[in-house]
Amino acid sequence: MKKIEGFPEGFLWGGATAANQFEGAYNLGGKGLSTADMVKFVPKKERGEGFSLDVSRTEIEVILNGKVEAVFPKRFGVDFYHHYKEDIALLAEMGFKIFRLSINWARIFPNGDDAKPNEEGLVFYDKVFDECLKYDMEPLVTLSHYETPLNLTMKYNGWADRRVIDFFINYADTVFRRYKNKVKYWLTFNEINIITLSPYTGGGVLVEDAENPLELSYQAGHHQFVASSLVTKLGHEINPEFKIGCMLARMTTYPETNNPEDVLKAQKENQINLFFTDVQARGEYPSYMNRYFYENNITIQKERGDEEILKTYPVDFISFSYYMTATASSKSSDNQVNGNFISGMKNTYLETSDWGWQIDPIGLRWTLKDFYDRYQLPLFIVENGLGAYDKVEEDGSIHDAYRIDYLQKHIEQMKEAVIDGVDLMGYTSWGCIDLVSASTSEMSKRYGYIYVDQDDEGNGTLKRLKKDSFYWYKKVISTNGNELSK
């Protein structure tokens, strides 16, 4: 039997972004408003304990009436719209095999329910994909990455309304046909489980008037499940070579102790998280959700044929984000940490980032093995990285050894998982070029190999600077992950 020694030939090394945090030009090229364009920057000192990413209908109406004096960072991102050639050239210099980005739905269909697409928006992505392919860089495209057209929220309450399925299919059909010879790898929904944690972010759903907000969120999630399956079917019909995956915010949870009650609680947290990939990969609702739905007074309204659709058209591969792990305890405590929609007890065995996110490279290996044992499908890590403060030295250099250390340790564990037998397709670390944070809408929380001169309020030259990690990751890619030293 042949010994597995490391990453396979053709492993897809790259980086990841999202249009709403990166692209900018929110009111150019015929683009309509998206839900992300309504998210304002709130300084850390003003966030408080109950800080939420959700935006209410009243808040949106006030913003649209021009009565809010605030900064909306996701409207300008880091202006990839005008810098895409420069940015893609920098990624190519690092040797990227693949570049994950999203299409902003409202740039193609400004209102979401338009009869015809916006040609100017389609042309923009033509140019972006052509630029990627010029460097033999595969695009990995997310169809919906927290960018629901705002009109769908105001008119239909986003994914809470089943009619949005047809609008999404029309959008997917348009871009699949347009880019069928330019894009091979697709994701339907980014971090699909976020629909239940931040309904506005995950699906443009307003829950403030709902009798049972959790039920409404899971109902919206069901509509996304059906849409994802139908889009997977459609994509394979348009181009049988398409590889279409789902994407989960993986929130791996450990029990705090070997107390059976802690173990049971951690198991439940993991099941609630993995429910979404169970549906998209296995094609059916798992029985363990029956009790959860009963206890939370949740009834999912399904139409005839939904279950057959889910079963017949599962995804080709599973992708996920991984930043940290959580710890579950059956006892209440103030000793908690929070990060990336995740919270739990502090794990005393782990270090924490500048933002209090616990750093757990070995947890990534465990997560990969657990995923592969559960589904036996190819896996793709499409988000992973360290958000940190970066300092630009007088000579323009940025020494981010802390980021290299984080990535090095996680890639080492990825390699171990591959040797363990996991089928891992690729790795796109998050925010390969500095961008606006999804959770806090700030620029000061930086992930990239490339520094962008811009502050939290949008001030700066937008000049791109290479960090030390730029050169390190270039070496990692050129050696297919065999050389990880600093």
TrEMBL record:
Keywords: Glycosidase, Hydrolase
GO CC terms in record: cytosol
Biological process annotations from GO: carbohydrate catabolic process
Pfam family of the protein (one): Glyco_hydro_1
Domain of life: Bacteria
Name of the protein in its database record: 6-phospho-beta-glucosidase
GO terms for MF: beta-glucosidase activity
Taxonomy of the source species: Bacteria, Bacillati, Bacillota, Bacilli, Lactobacillales
Residues of the active site: E383 (nucleophile)
Family: Belongs to the glycosyl hydrolase 1 family.
Taxonomic source organism: Carnobacterium iners
